[in-house]
């Protein structure tokens, strides 16, 4: 730690994430930074690998954002660019929020002797072998990580995170986000019109393969064939949204409702 940081008593952190699109991980990232901004003992900068930012609250924090953009999937210049950012900023900790960011951070952490906090464990992988890129990146990054954070013990166990350096921090919730909500009856009328569903099933997640909307939609179609007044509400955006819409047959389309993000 350099002299200035000793004098100020501050901890300096680089938060390194692959993107800030709409999603649970990105929401948790944003909420954490909003909370840390209130602590005058913590100073931080952000490194993000995409210029698309859904959570505009990030800009309200008035912190420096570095855009580390890859020119291609195999663009190795990001290692040098990330090293330069950290050499100039001199953080005490690099907190990575994705498997690829953890891999990129390894050389910098070792060369500059910076602690690596690896927060890539946010799911429970089905494929636990080297055909799963997240599994592979976990196996590469875990040995170099000073601490590994997961949001579930099941995820940490499934990825084979070393127990002596792992910690589970479950997802939190800012209940202020639930103030001034629409009236429930008005919302139901907005979605269902004059219908009165007997039972409503909901799912909120990005339309990506790892969220497995496909299984839910198959179940929804089967259940609708048995219970005509059962409705499903699917909330989210993503690369598979249109594909999933096309899997719903015409008889079920009024009962399986896509609300977008």
Topology:
Layout: H1 3-8, E1 11-17, H2 24-36, E2 42-48, H3 57-60, E3 65-67, H4 77-89, E4 93-96, H5 99-112, E5 115-121, H6 133-141, E6 147-150, H7 153-159, E7 166-168, H8 184-192, E8 199-204, H9 213-226, E9 230-235, H10 241-246, E10 256-260
Parallel strand pairs: 1-2, 1-4, 2-3, 4-5, 5-6, 6-7, 8-9, 9-10
Helix pairs in contact: 4-5, 5-6
Give an overview in words:
With 261 residues, the protein is α/β, with parallel strands linked by helices. It is 36% helix and 20% strand. It has a 7-stranded parallel sheet, covered by helices on one side. A 3-stranded parallel sheet has the order 8-9-10. Helix 4 (77-89) crosses helix 5 and helix 5 runs parallel beside helix 6. The longest helix has 14 residues, at 99-112. The model has no long low-confidence stretch (mean pLDDT 91).
């Amino acid at each position: 730690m350099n002299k200035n940081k000793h004098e100020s008593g501050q901890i300096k952190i680089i938060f390194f994430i692959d993107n800030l699109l709409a999603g649970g991980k990105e929401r948790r990232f944003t909420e954490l930074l909003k909370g840390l901004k209130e602590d005058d003992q913590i100073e931080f900068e952000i490194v993000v690998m995409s210029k698309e930012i859904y959570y505009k609250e990030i800009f309200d924090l008035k912190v420096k954002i570095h855009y580390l953009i890859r020119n291609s999937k195999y663009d190795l210049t990001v290692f040098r660019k990330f090293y330069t950012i950290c050499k100039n900023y001199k953080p005490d900790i690099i907190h990575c929020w994705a498997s690829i960011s953890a891999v990129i951070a390894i050389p910098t952490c070792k060369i500059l002797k910076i602690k690596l906090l690896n927060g890539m464990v946010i799911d429970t992988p089905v494929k636990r072998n080297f055909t799963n890129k997240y599994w592979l990146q976990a196996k590469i990054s875990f040995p170099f990580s000073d601490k590994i954070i997961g949001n579930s013990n099941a995820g940490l166990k499934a990825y084979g995170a070393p127990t002596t350096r792992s910690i589970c921090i479950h997802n939190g919730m800012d209940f202020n986000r639930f103030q001034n909500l629409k009236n429930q009856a008005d919302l139901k009328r907005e979605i269902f019109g004059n219908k009165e569903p007997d039972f409503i099933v909901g799912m909120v997640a990005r339309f990506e393969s790892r969220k497995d909307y496909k299984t839910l939609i198959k179940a929804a179609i089967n259940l609708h064939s048995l219970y005509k007044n059962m409705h499903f509400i699917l909330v989210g955006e993503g690369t598979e949204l249109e594909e999933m819409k096309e899997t719903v047959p015409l008889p079920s389309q009024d009962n399986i409702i896509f609300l977008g993000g």
